[in-house]
Amino acid sequence: MKAKVIMVQGTMSNSGKSFITAGLCRAFARDGYRVAPFKSQNMALNSYITKDGLEIGRAQVVQAEAAGVEPTADMNPILLKPTSHTGSQVIVNGRVRGQMKAMDYFKHKTELIPDIMAAFRRLAEDYDIIVIEGAGSPAEINLKENDIVNMGLAKMADAPVLLVGDIDRGGVFASLYGTVKLLEEEEQARIQGLIINKFRGDPEILKSGIRMIEDLVHIPVVGVVPMEKIHIDDEDSLSEHLLSEEMTGGLDVAVIRLPHISNFTDFTAFERLSGVSLRYVDRASKLGSPHLILLPGTKNTMADLRWLRNNGLEERIIRLSRDGVSVMGVCGGYQMLGSVLSDPEGVEDGGEMAGMGLLPGQTIFREEKTRTRIRGAVINGVLKGCPVEGYEIHMGDTRMKDGNNGGFLPWIRLDDGRMDGITSRDGTVMGTYLHGVFDEGDFLSRLIEPLMEKYHLNGDFGRRQDVKAYKEAEYDKLADLVRKSLDMEKIYQIMGGRPDV
């Protein structure tokens, strides 16, 4: 095998595995190596479509961007997209394999090992270094049997492991010690370094604790990573972004936090604009009177629309829309805004239900998933002529109903000739299937600027914002943080030395 390998595991979910993995990818790439991220099995509703139309988890896309390489399905051969508390859509090598209950998947997941290792070997032939990310904790003793994502994968890939603990939550030494000691001796031997993540304060205070944990587990601490504000996309349902509920001034943009919310990273572009306050709302009492309401994607449109209906948010959104508040839906949110949702094949809940009725769209769910990256241009409404770019991930088709549509128009013409989305003439209600549409600087600024004028606000609308340059600068900050905080020479030593290139 050509590639050197290192694996990042964590003592718990949200310990910072994805963050550290992305930082290592960037640091190794800046040392001149060709680097690939790898996660054998990812569970997330934030996904992405590769250039060849395959679906993978968002974290591996971020890590590939940090490494300066094109994301591919080999970097995340298994993606689980939860559709309920006990079941998920199973995506293998970028394509839907089907729906499975958790217990059924647990019984059959080892059958996917050939797919995992084939993807890993292809990367190992093409790259100098592979940085593997684990999932959750390797010490979940009820799930360790037939593991394919933590120590089981480390053994298959013969990978040394760095174990990350989150000190910000407290109890970092206990979590590091407990994780190590719950593993088999062979698994413990694979852990070659400990990382303390999200530290606030004077690192001198930690020195005695570091000495003691090293004496207890006989594994060196290879670094303490301070808590720093670096903006890279999250994919985790525990993301701090989703906890932002308060209006902080300026233009009030409210994202409805649906139970099955997907691709919430669509909205991070708003966070980079001065004069704009982005918040997530899951109760009618918290919605207030925002200037713009965004309905995000969801893995279960019909169930989440029923949730909106039952908790009063639907009624509140409709009333605000009729009072002139702008409303925009993306993917599942776009489907909800229509008049009718039909599921004849039982893709979601089956049957038919009324939509919110704010757009004259009729959605029919189908088994076949649309997966594509696409460009286009707005052809009607207040953003007419604006270029757009994004990607589609959906299992439904939405059409305008026949006849008089009361001033509503098709919104976007895609480069492949298809029409996407619906808009009101005045742009107060809009919907599209395109994820990532706000990353286009002109689109975002032309959406925000008239709202700023309407509500007599001032701010930087991010006109022609260079999203790529912004991301590159943040990845460089991350690499600098990793280099400053971790013993990179020790990590190269753990990997068996620097690659020969």
What global shape is seen? globular
Strand content: 25-35%
Structural class: alpha/beta
The CATH superfamily label of the largest domain reads: P-loop containing nucleotide triphosphate hydrolases
The name CATH uses for the topology of the largest domain is Rossmann fold
- Can you tell me the CATH class of the largest domain? Alpha Beta
Tell me the count of domains.
2
Q: Give me the number of helical elements.
A: 16
Give the helix proportion (percent range): 25-40%
Question: Quick one: how many beta strands?
Answer: 25
What is the name of the CATH architecture of the largest domain? Answer: 3-Layer(aba) Sandwich
Mean pLDDT: 92
Quote the distance from N terminus to C terminus: 13 Å
The major sheet is characterized as:
11 strands, mixed
What is the C-alpha radius of gyration, as a whole number of Å?
Answer: 23 Å
Low-confidence stretches: none
Domain CobB/CobQ-like glutamine amidotransferase: 252-442
Active site: 331 (nucleophile), 435
Pfam families: CbiA (PF01656), GATase_3 (PF07685)
Function: Catalyzes amidations at positions B, D, E, and G on adenosylcobyrinic A,C-diamide. NH(2) groups are provided by glutamine, and one molecule of ATP is hydrogenolyzed for each amidation.
